[in-house]
Design a protein that fits this description.
It holds the Pfam family HTH_3. This protein is an all-alpha fold. It has 5 helices and no strands.
């Protein structure tokens, strides 16, 4: 049985992509939470690979970051390479 602390490569890759874009935009998790209406603790869990985002969450984050949702996915794909 898998340890509950095991995080999937995919979730970690998305988290790194999200954190990279957030930092490029010079936003804190609190600011991103405010602009996206996504809870700050959930943003932290996403960035740490603990949660999988829904499509609606990805689009809300992308809008708040002023990027296309595809930019988050492309960042995720780069992290997986």
């Amino acid at each position: 049985m898998a340890n509950h602390n095991d995080k999937s490569i995919e979730l970690l890759a998305f988290g790194r992509a999200l954190r990279t874009i957030r930092k490029e935009k010079k936003l804190t998790q609190d600011e991103l939470s405010l602009y996206s209406r996504v809870d700050r603790s959930y943003i932290s869990e996403l960035e740490n690979g603990e949660k999988a985002p829904t499509l609606l969450t990805i689009t809300a984050l992308a809008r708040a970051l002023h990027v296309k949702a595809s930019a988050l996915i492309e960042g995720y794909e780069r992290e997986l390479e």
